[in-house]
Design a protein that fits this description.
There is one protein chain. The protein has 14 helices and 15 strands. It is α/β, with parallel strands linked by helices and about 450 residues long. Strand 14 and strand 15 form a beta hairpin. The two termini are about 40 Å apart. The mean pLDDT is about 95. Bound molecules: aspartic acid (ASP). The site of aspartic acid (ASP) has 12 residues, from loops. The site of aspartic acid has 12 residues, from loops.
Length: about 450
């Protein structure tokens, strides 16, 4: 039986007009049974997100700021939605309780979570769906980590009693009953959790764009939309900064193979992007699925004669980075060289100590530091069995006069990562895009 879980982002629920669009989408399909709302987002450029206002409220209450003024702005957002929808609903008791809780020491996370909580109350009343407080069914452990199994067991049973419900995103409860949240944008994760627990056939994630684009529109003019992408490809692209969906949101549904459909609330007829567990046969005509990149890397290249024959050489280098708790992002290596790519901002303050320690640990023939490196990932399931893809990427970059600093093809063959100088970043993405998308 078809069952859809639908999550609506903050811009989809930012005012009464958006609420009407959302209700229209839900009512158009009986199988859209579980709804996960975010807090009201920005209505226009420069507007405030309610979640940000709630963080400010917490600060104002705890640092003697003008809490009344901030709270008034928050109440105004919700009251306006209720009024403009013509609803017979008052949140006054809720406001009183929130203020009292915060004055009695409730946490910053509690404050932040109230945006989803109040929006959920309004949306459930508007739709005529049951309201289920996420604090009663999304559980975190004492360390504040999401408790996937306890939540899944409990929620699975609970949802059986409610055929149609609104469950606010972003938060849940700790073992002592207090509220905590996922990281920012975490309503995407709640949607995925509910999709898994309800054995949904589809998780629709409604936002303000019509899915993932093949490249960042700030680099490439009018890039094509990605119609179909696998979880694995998405993971590679999200790591490199393609952000539409919270990067932890794939885990609960990936586990059970539920597809995610990214849709646009403002253009509900657009098919969006479908994220699927895996597909062998549907190779996009562009061969590649998408290109994404990130700047702000430093590469440290260590050279040592006959490195290939030395035992423990790599370990000694890794231990230096472990000692300073600096994560290694990439590790391209040659016969006698090994390059370590790390985040430039984290590296800067540790630079002198790390270099000294590498010298001490490995006595290298040379150690070269390259700053201002960008990494570009060219991702595509179509690359796996296709020959000549790398050659086309390199030719495109050579034709654009771009020097390649590093190449790394993941063992999955799903992804080729290229390092270029930051100044060449945009041109490199444009050149690769132009090579594959005619
Ligand atoms: N409202 C929260 C945020 O602004 C969570 C979400 O929208 O998913 O991060």
């Amino acid at each position: 039986m078809e069952l859809k879980v639908v999550k609506f982002g903050g811009s989809s629920l930012s005012d009464a007009k958006q609420f009407q669009k959302v209700a229209g989408i839900i009512r158009a399909d009986e199988t859209r049974r579980y709804v996960i709302p975010s807090a009201p987002g920005k209505r226009f450029d420069g507007d405030e997100k309610v979640t940000d206002l709630l963080y400010s409220l917490y600060k104002a209450i705890n640092e003697q700021g003008n809490a009344e003024a901030v709270f008034a702005r928050i109440k105004d957002r919700f009251n306006k939605i209720i009024d403009e929808l013509g609803m017979n609903l008052s949140l006054d008791c809720e406001y009183t309780k929130i203020e009292k809780d915060l004055r009695n020491g409730a946490s910053r996370e509690y404050a932040a979570s109230r945006g989803e909580y109040l929006n959920g109350i309004i949306l459930s009343a508007y739709l005529g769906f049951t309201f289920i407080d996420a604090a009663t069914c999304i559980f975190f452990d004492a360390e504040g980590n999401f408790d996937a199994e306890t939540t899944n067991q409990y929620l699975k049973q609970l949802l059986k009693a409610y055929p149609k419900a609104v469950i606010p995103g972003f938060y849940g409860s700790l073992p002592d009953g207090s509220i905590t949240t996922f990281s920012r944008g975490g309503s995407d994760i709640t949607g995925s959790i509910v999709a898994r627990a309800s054995a949904a056939t589809l998780y629709e994630n409604w936002t303000d764009v019509s899915g993932f684009l093949m490249a960042d529109p700030r680099c490439v003019e009018n890039p094509r939309r990605i119609e179909l992408i696998t979880y694995k490809e998405l993971r590679e692209l999200s790591y490199m900064g393609a952000s539409v969906l919270h990067d932890e949101a794939v885990f609960p549904v990936r586990y059970v193979g539920i597809p995610i459909n990214i849709r646009n609330t403002n253009r509900p007829d657009d098919p969006g992007t479908l994220i699927v567990p895996g597909t062998e046969d549907e190779i996009p005509d562009t061969i590649i699925t998408g290109i994404a990149g990130k700047s702000g890397f430093v590469s440290i290249t260590v050279e040592k004669d006959q490195m290939n024959k030395r035992y423990g050489f790599g370990r000694r280098i890794f231990e230096v980075f472990e000692k300073y708790k600096l994560a290694i992002e990439h590790l391209p290596s040659g016969i006698d060289t090994m390059s370590i790519l790390v985040n430039a901002n984290s590296f800067k303050p540790l630079r002198a100590s790390i270099i000294a320690d590498i010298y001490r640990a490995t006595d290298p023939d040379s150690l070269v530091i390259d700053e201002h490196i960008s990494l570009i990932a060219v991702v595509g399931r179509g690359m796996v069995r296709n020959k000549g893809i790398a050659a086309r990427i390199f030719r495109a970059l050579a034709d654009a006069n771009i020097n390649i600093k590093m190449i790394d093809q993941g063992s999955s063959e799903l992804n080729i990562i290229i390092g270029v100088e930051e100044k060449d970043f945009n041109l490199a993405i444009r050149s690769i895009y132009a090579e594959f998308v005619k």
